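Following up on my earlier message about ribulose-5-phosphate. Here are the inputs again, as you asked, copied directly from the submission form:
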Amino acid sequence: MQLGMIGLGRMGANMVMRLLRAGHECVVYDRDPKAIQTLVDQGAEGATDMADLCAKLAPPRNIWMMVPAGVVDAVISDVSPHLAAGDTLIDGGNSNYRDDLKHAERLRPEGIHFIDCGTSGGVWGLERGYCLMIGGDDEAVERLDPIFAALAPGAGEIERTHGRSGPASRSEQGYLHCGPNGAGHFVKMVHNGIEYALMAAYAEGFNLLRHAGVGRNDHEVDAETAPLSNPEHYQYDIPVAEVAEVWRRGSVVASWLLDLTANALLEDPDLKGFGGRVSDSGEGRWTCLAAIETGTPAPLLTTALFERFSSRGEADFANQILSAMRYQFGGHHEKPKD
Ligand SMILES: O=C(CO)[C@H](O)[C@H](O)COP(=O)(O)O
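Thanks, got it. Here's what our run produced:
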């Protein structure tokens, strides 16, 4: 099947590679000519601009946009004049599902289908496949089935869920038509909200393991920590990277995020390459907003998001206020930082 790809960053380029390997035909466009050339060398056809991209695709065209959420509007404006009724535009980035509704509405009078597709797999997707969460009308989603099937991981080695039988469903192959426009990105948004909380849980647990030796004489004592009731209880020098490794095998908390954590700890046990400023791209915030608007309790996801803000210094003034109040009511002086 033929597919146009706009946006050949880490995700877009690897997705094209995976589609080429599966025998699909890809016409590719990016603002960076070097990114286009790299894929032309791998068997894709390059396009010089949006008009050329559309001219090289046989109708009905299928064009996948793999661009940052903030530029999707502009890309639609650039490409849509070259499209015709029956064509389909797919937004595979991390867009807000509310924007999908606007985009679908905007393209509908022209007879152009719009699909939102939450895409998870990151830089590992080329080999492992991408988990796809799809929103859009049945006709367009059905037509693109061979593309989704090639990008998705497939049933693979994963043990079948107890009670499932017959041919593997799409969800068992790693892709799902979640509903009409917006549903794909809504599911991806919640997926990323969960991702924040899982990441935070692992981070807190491993940090606690690192503190298991605070009672040892050779341990640097933090002047701020209240005296231990019994230092004997905190005498451990736990090999944190090894714990990550052992938990990967048969434990209840085994997961791909843990696999990646084990990689990171093996490469750099003290994580000296990271300062700990944790960015966020929006999905976590949208998840929390959806939780508030629907009245759905989501305290873990929300806390994990707020922790990211704190990691960037956004709690500093609140902490200064705490110190100031403590001084005001008790004359307690703040101890200097190390
Ligand atoms: O979608 C993803 C993983 O599933 C992306 O890696 C995502 O952009 C990461 O989100 P954030 O920058 O908010 O941590």
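One observation from looking it over: The beta strands are 2-6, 25-29, 45-46, 62-65, 88-91, 113-120, 131-135, 175-179. Hope that helps, and feel free to reply on this thread.
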